Amino acid sequence: MKKSRTFISKPYTTACMTMMAAIISIPLTPSISGVFQGSVKTMAEVVGSASSLEQSGALQKLRHFHPSEALAALTVYFEAAGESFAGKLAMAAVIRNRMKLKYQSDGTVKGTVLKARQFQPWSTRNPYHIPLDLKKKSMRDSLLAWRLVQDGRNVVDGAVLFYNPKLVRTPYWATVSQRVSTIGGHEFYTPPSRSRRT
User: Fold this and answer.
1) Exposure class string for 139-164: b at 16+ Cβ within 10 A, else e
2) What pLDDT is recorded for position 67?
């Protein structure tokens, strides 16, 4: 059986997070995406990138986002509450994977996260009554995580299922699915049909 992997994130510096917050409001251009692909080598360069973004006014554009982005970000925010940025990135990747594979999904954000009995936060809340407040760091991080996974990066090895073993009993599907990753308090799985192909 394929061994699961544990993702351990490195601490983010204030400069890095300032830069990342700015990025969520603009497309990842080659010069900016390089920060995440390793082309920026030193902290001085990272700080310089963040400073340039601030001077360009990018940080003032945080309030501009599409309603579907807000819905995805709020789902990440609630499902990954208390998790590190890595945990939020993982949750965002699950939503993206479901949309791409149309697993319990019609391929849209709304048709994925609001599908009955799939994402627990929306069983007791109305997402249209909850604003995405970007003054809250955790909500900014959730929107950032959602935007970052749009480049197709592999975060949870294609997982479309997850649960927190400390909060709920082991569901039946977890006993027949392939665990592919553990990030923070969540375990991530691919269903049997996909596990046999990986």
Assistant:
1) bbbbbbbbbbbeeeeebbbbbbbbbe
2) 87
